[in-house]
Amino acid sequence: MYFWLLVVAILTFADAASLPADPIECQFLCDETRCIENSKRCNGVADCDDLSDENGCVDSKCEFMCDVTKCIENTRRCDGVDDCADLTDERNCLEGVDTGNETAESKTLHHILPFLRPKAKELSCLGGKNEPGHCVPLETCVLKELIEDYLKYRGYFCVLENQSVGVCCPQNHASRIKRQTTAAPAIVNIDETKKEPDAADVDYTYLGEPDVCGFSTKQLSRVSKPQAAGMRDYPWIVALMTTDYFHYCGGVIIDSLHILTAAHCVPPGTLPDKLIVRVGEYDFRTSNDSQVADFGVARLVVHEEYDTGTYENDIALLRLKEPITYGIYVQPVCLPTRKQDLENDFRNTTAVVAGWGTTEYGGPMSDILMEVPVPIWDQDDCVESFIQTVFESAMCAAGKEGGKDSCQGDSGGPLVTQREDNRWMTIGVVSWGIRCGEKGKPGVYTRVNQFIPWIASHLSY
């Protein structure tokens, strides 16, 4: 009898010892199937697939997005360490900044980060084969070795005086003046022989949906400040999301099968099957407020000369798997295809930018569609506002005194204005800027009218 009691006691003790001392408690629910501890919240690591564990954090370590799965503190930006594993945290660091006296946040450009202009002075260096050269921006010295084997010849990389990444260009290598564009992603089917006709010689007024585009009861004159838009004000705006329903960019309906957005919203390697285009959205917190519908993406068309370093030609088209059905909450916008629109630089024109982006730099995304009126700047004033290059195919728009600007999460969305016939047309695509709403630092937008021939050449696919 005592023997069996002893056996039971030993087995009970062994079972208890095999159990974890502190069972994991479900403290934060990512979704219906996954739960994590509170200690994993706001630690800069995406433990939840949708990054919900890093949203709404006070003193969050998630301040700079390397990509949709990795986030780091701003203090790890521009510190000479490749924390993102793709150098994105070490690119585009402002020159002439004393890193000992200013926070990393004050040095960081906001949602889009083009390379800085290189200084005139070039730095002497030794290349990957120990040959003498000068440290110059990569796009001005495209080496065959780097194209063939990036890892093997990584010794060519150097750091410019402005702390951006350069390449040690051999002295006998002729540097190119024109910036070289990056290779298009494999998913983009490009017809290299297709020529874009001169816009002045072709009638493009057929493009898009000219008979039904741009209709809204919204009046431009009634948009005077940053505010929540009306549910039916901008029926052409779309939310670009991942298949995990992570909203990260915007876009605009130009016909029943095509969305116009920014090239940087679908960077090289983006797969169409991983994207969702949501139309008819207004308030992400509710499910029955408007005619919401989600569409899969069949094909991405990124501009063949889009430059990931400078954001030149920052424009792309998404072809949907199924056509959009129009309704009171879903309509296409007009393209600037009339002769007067193609020739217009839109300076001093008041436009509206709308989206679900943050309402302040580093703040949370908005659940409700927001709108803000912004005047188009004179191109000379636009160019002089930045040390970064602003190309002729881009324009600036923002309140002159600050406070009126697009912000993080608005990328790819439309900049629209109202024509004299009261119909709305898109004239810009949200591209990049420095922080948000700062005086003298406007948002930069891709000029849609400069790309009408390119759009026309791809809508027929």
UniProtKB/TrEMBL annotation:
Put simply, this protein is called: Serine protease
Q: Enumerate the PROSITE patterns for this protein.
A: LDLRA_1 (PS01209), LDLRA_2 (PS50068), TRYPSIN_DOM (PS50240), TRYPSIN_HIS (PS00134), TRYPSIN_SER (PS00135)
Domain of life, per lineage = Eukaryota
Which Pfam family would be a valid example here?
Ldl_recept_a
Disulfide bond entries = C30-C48, C42-C57, C66-C84, C78-C93
Classification via SUPFAM superfamilies: LDL receptor-like module (SSF57424), Trypsin-like serine proteases (SSF50494)
The top of its lineage is:
Eukaryota, Metazoa, Ecdysozoa, Arthropoda, Hexapoda
Entry's Gene Ontology molecular function annotations? peptidase activity
Alphabetical GO biological process terms? proteolysis
Cleaved signal peptide residues = 1-16
The record, for InterPro entries, names: LDL_receptor-like_sf, LDLR_class-A_CS, LDrepeatLR_classA_rpt, Peptidase_S1_PA, Peptidase_S1_PA_chymotrypsin, Peptidase_S1A, Trypsin_dom, TRYPSIN_HIS
Keywords of the record: Disulfide bond, Hydrolase, Protease, Serine protease, Signal
Source species of the chain: Nesidiocoris tenuis
Segments forming domain Peptidase S1 = 212-460
